[in-house]
Hints:
This protein is α/β, with parallel strands linked by helices and about 240 residues long. Helices cover about 55% and strands about 10% of the residues. It has two domains: about 1-90; about 110-235, 3-Layer(aba) Sandwich (Rossmann fold). The protein is built from eight helices and four strands; from the N terminus they run ααααβαβαβαβα. Strands 2-1-3-4 form a four-stranded parallel beta sheet, with helices on both faces. α5 links the parallel β1 and β2.
Amino acid sequence: MVSLSLIILSAVYFSMALGNYHRLGLSPLETVIFTFLFVLLTLLVSSWILVLMSTHQKIRPNGLRLYSTWMLVNIYYYLAKWLGKLVMQKKKELQESFLNFNNEIVLSNYSGIHSNNILVLLPHCLQNSECKIRITNDIIDCAECGACDIAKVKGIMSKHNVRAAVATGGSLARKLIQDSRPDVIIAVACHRDLTDGVRDSWRFPVYAVLNERPNGPCFETRVSVSIIEFAIKKFA
């Protein structure tokens, strides 16, 4: 979607520029405007190439890596969203594409992370609704009854010595991230929360894991523990 958006923008630009030039020539003001637009278009295309490269190889300068991430979440996401609306793409399809693309970048650019610097963020809806223990932060309080996937995640955390926390909302998730400042975050949530979370926390590498909702949204959701463990092994 992003590549197609840039092709469309390029075609519109050159059509307008050549049309004006052949008709009357360009005035000084039009020359400035089209020069500015050309530089902007060149920047968008070259930055997109950088983002595409980051899905397969590590971008060494940290500043350049942050720049490409900022462009992805603040510019290219909206370009894809704009074109997606034109072609009537489903919102979830766009969100999944964005999250998968982001995961490729995170996997390519972050490795050799100490397990203590990996934070696993879980949604509160993962817990069984009838559980008498309310886990609001650290999952160490889980009694491991096996009624939900929290117990399985706790076992993985103990096995790999990784921190895990339960966030009851976006504000608490952001606070947990700011307080602990992990090197890598593995976040479990639904499409909307993950998309918003990745974009809000763009300065931190977030590996997104979509939850499963057999009982509907925000109620006794499930998660594939094998995917979480796969991510931990890739980063550590």
